[in-house]
């Protein structure tokens, strides 16, 4: 697999980010390929979640945050960090799965279709079809098809996280962000989410933050190692885990620090 | 240095004496508060019980204590509470949503926030004076149900705002982020998630506010509620088109605490019994409202566990 076969989906260019006066990201350049999984690894506080949350402009929700540089989204070449681009437009194209499952206190059905409701879709037949499609793709349909109108809170943790994935899938995103999606789950639920990610990457580009190096090695095609807000190394996952170029990367993945 | 078992046991027993002592002290303090209330209520009830008959609720006040009732008072109280609730709740909830979700975090917002909390501590008579100048004279609403309802709404507005803000804050940030991440606008997030999930807290705040308003006397006297009213306000339903009438808003009125005040200031012993009976009714109304608030909170929260 060479880089030439990959289509670029998005690209961070000289991206820096500030929480008030505190600089959290320092001049990061990183490509994101279509139908590929890119993993972000690094010790706690290195800025990987901060970086991920730039892609759907989550930082705009809180005062005092500031971006520098660009994230260009292809094929339309839009800088999604530009103040001229509405963050809501960005979030309609880029969906996100969070660290802890965060379903709404509503029925399973209402959870899945919330993104469609927001877009003003209310035709029952479309919604029904989308619910089945999203839940099937999130490998949850068979478990919940008989109780779509039960509260989402009655599901187990792993099921809730797959529900959140279905909710993010229902809006047909171009990029899907996963912020440590399995850190609150047991190993079996984790395995099912990882399997799911592998199936889903045929539809869009995936960016995942993970603390778990085996997970990065298992699910991703490319890996970026971040340290203290800087990109230390970016390469094919295989290369990073077998033969990293930087000493720091090697130390981190072999568990010598971090 | 190691204690022997004997030494340890003596020491623990000595320390535990403080536990017992404090538990006793706590029970005593609790009893002092609860017993006072119970005795007060029992005394009122014993005094007033013989007056609490159906006629007591269906009669107007009278010069004859035996025939006097609280019809105009409870109807007035309900009418005033209706105006208060319909004004204070939308205003208070909207203000709270703005402060929590929309307002930029700057010094102006900070000053407003501090003052909202301060407003809750303003003596109610001051609201009465404000309302007398503003509603009764300036807006020319007169000494009416409308003026009284608006006055009490001002009085409980801070309570509603503070309770609503707390209810909104109890919704976890992860739920807000989930909605925003799916492309929701602020208003879609507020109307589709925040308000429904915090409804129990908002309703509780409203009821606690209203149960404070229901017993307020000073501001209502200040704006000129009458103490002796032998007629009912206009009916809200009229025989002619459009069948709904708002005449009652402009009617003079009395409320339960004022009726009580009027009776207690009479020299005749018989009227004291009426006052006690009205007190029991007012207390039961307040307790019922608080009970409703607790019930609502319990049942609506059952569905939502963060």
Summarize the structure in short.
Chain A has 10 helices and 10 strands. Chain A is of the alpha/beta class. The mean pLDDT of chain A is 92.
Task: Characterise this structure.
The complex is a heterodimer of chains A (258) and B (306). Chain A has 258 residues and is of the alpha/beta class. Chain A is built from 10 helices and 10 strands. Chain A has helices at 48-52, 87-93, 108-118, 124-137, 141-144, 157-169, 187-200, 213-219, 237-242, 247-253, and strands at residues 8-19, 22-33, 37-41, 65-73, 78-79, 94-97, 175-179, 205-209, 222-227, 230-236. In chain A, a hairpin with a 2-residue loop joins strand 9 (222-227) and strand 10. In chain A, 45% of the residues are buried. Helices cover 71% and strands 0% of the residues of chain B. Chain B is built from 12 helices and no strands. In chain B, helix 3 (71-102) packs across helix 9, helix 5 packs across helix 6 and helix 7 runs antiparallel to helix 8. At the A-B interface, helix 2, helix 3 and helix 6 of A face helix 7 and helix 8 of B.
Topology:
The complex is a heterodimer of chains A (258) and B (306).
Chain A: E1 8-19, E2 22-33, E3 37-41, H1 48-52, E4 65-73, E5 78-79, H2 87-93, E6 94-97, H3 108-118, H4 124-137, H5 141-144, H6 157-169, E7 175-179, H7 187-200, E8 205-209, H8 213-219, E9 222-227, E10 230-236, H9 237-242, H10 247-253
Parallel strand pairs in A: 3-8, 3-9, 6-7, 7-8
Antiparallel strand pairs in A: 1-2, 1-4, 4-5, 9-10
Chain B: H1 5-48, H2 54-58, H3 71-102, H4 107-119, H5 124-138, H6 145-169, H7 173-181, H8 186-197, H9 199-213, H10 218-222, H11 256-264, H12 269-301
Helix-residue proportion of chain B: over 70%
Number of strands of chain B: 0
Main beta-sheet strand count, sense and barrel state of chain A: 6 strands, mixed
What string gives the helices and strands of chain B in order? HHHHHHHHHHHH
Order of helices and strands of chain A: EEEHEEHEHHHHEHEHEEHH
**Total count of helical runs of at least 4 residues of chain A:** 10
The greatest interface between two protein chains, and residues involved on each side, is:
A-B, 26 and 22 residues
The Rg value of chain A, from CA coordinates, equals 18 Å
Low-confidence stretches of chain A: none
Within the largest sheet of chain A, what's the order of strands? 6-7-8-3-9-10
| Number of helical regions of chain B | 12
- Rounded to the nearest angstrom, the distance between the terminal CA atoms of chain A is 30 Å
- Percent in strands of chain A: 25-35%
Largest sheet of chain B: none
Query: How big a fraction of the residues of chain B is strand?
Result: under 5%
Distance between the termini of chain B: 48 Å
Strand segment count of chain A: 10
Q: Structural class given helices, strands, pairing of chain A?
A: alpha/beta
Q: Which stretches of chain B are poorly predicted, pLDDT < 50 over at least 5 residues?
A: none
């Amino acid at each position: 697999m060479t880089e030439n076969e990959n289509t670029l989906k998005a690209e961070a260019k000289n991206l820096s980010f500030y929480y008030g006066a505190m600089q959290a990201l320092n001049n990061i350049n990183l490509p994101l390929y279509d139908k590929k999984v890119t993993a972000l690894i690094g010790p706690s506080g290195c800025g990987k979640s901060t970086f991920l949350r730039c892609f759907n402009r989550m930082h705009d929700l809180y005062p005092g945050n500031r971006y520098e540089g660009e994230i260009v989204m292809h094929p339309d070449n839009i800088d999604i960090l530009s103040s001229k681009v509405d963050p809501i437009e960005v979030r309609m194209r880029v969906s996100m799965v969070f660290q802890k499952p965060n379903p709404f206190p509503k029925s399973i059905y209402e959870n899945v279709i919330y993104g469609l409701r927001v877009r003003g879709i209310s035709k029952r037949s479309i919604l029904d079809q989308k619910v089945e499609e999203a839940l099937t793709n999130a490998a949850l349909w068979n478990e919940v098809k008989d109780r779509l109108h039960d509260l989402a809170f009655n599901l187990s943790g792993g099921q809730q996280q797959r529900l959140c994935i279905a909710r993010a899938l229902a809006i047909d995103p171009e990029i899907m962000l996963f912020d440590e999606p399995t850190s609150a789950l047991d190993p079996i639920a984790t395995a099912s989410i990882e399997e799911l990610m592998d199936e889903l990457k045929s539809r869009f580009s995936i960016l995942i933050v993970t603390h778990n190096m085996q997970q990065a090695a298992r699910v991703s095609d490319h890996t970026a190692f971040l340290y203290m807000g800087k990109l230390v190394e970016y390469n094919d996952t295989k290369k990073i885990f077998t033969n990293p170029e930087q000493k720091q990367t090697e130390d981190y993945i072999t568990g010598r620090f971090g | 240095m190691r204690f022997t078992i004997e030494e340890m046991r003596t020491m623990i027993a000595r320390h535990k004496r403080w536990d017992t002592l404090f538990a006793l002290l706590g029970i005593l303090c609790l009893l002092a508060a609860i017993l006072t209330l119970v005795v007060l209520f029992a005394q009122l009830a014993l005094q007033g019980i013989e007056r609490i008959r159906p006629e007591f609720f269906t009669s107007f006040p009278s010069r004859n204590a035996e025939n006097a009732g609280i019809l105009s008072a409870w109807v007035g109280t309900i009418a005033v509470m209706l105006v208060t609730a319909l004004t204070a709740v939308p205003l208070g909830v909207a203000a709270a949503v703005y402060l929590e979700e929309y307002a930029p975090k700057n010094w102006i917002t900070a000053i407003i926030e501090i003052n909202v909390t301060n407003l809750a501590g303003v003596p109610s008579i001051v609201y009465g004076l404000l309302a007398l100048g503003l509603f009764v004279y300036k807006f020319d609403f007169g000494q009416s149900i409308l003026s009284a309802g608006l006055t009490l709404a001002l009085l409980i507005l801070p309570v509603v705002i503070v309770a609503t803000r707390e209810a909104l804050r109890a919704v976890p940030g992860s739920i807000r982020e989930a909605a925003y991440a799916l492309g929701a606008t602020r208003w879609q997030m507020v109307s589709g998630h925040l308000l429904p999930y915090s409804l129990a807290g908002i309703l509780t705040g409203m009821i606690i506010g209203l149960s404070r308003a229901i017993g307020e006397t000073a501001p209502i006297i200040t704006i000129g509620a009458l103490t002796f009213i032998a007629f009912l306000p206009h009916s809200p339903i009229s025989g002619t088109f459009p069948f709904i009438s708002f005449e009652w808003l402009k009617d003079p009125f009395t409320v339960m605490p004022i009726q009580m005040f009027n009776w207690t200031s009479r020299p005749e012993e018989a009227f004291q019994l009426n006052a006690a009976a009205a007190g029991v009714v007012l207390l039961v109304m307040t307790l019922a409202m608080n009970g409703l608030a607790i019930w609502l909170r319990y049942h609506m929260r059952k569905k939502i566990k963060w």
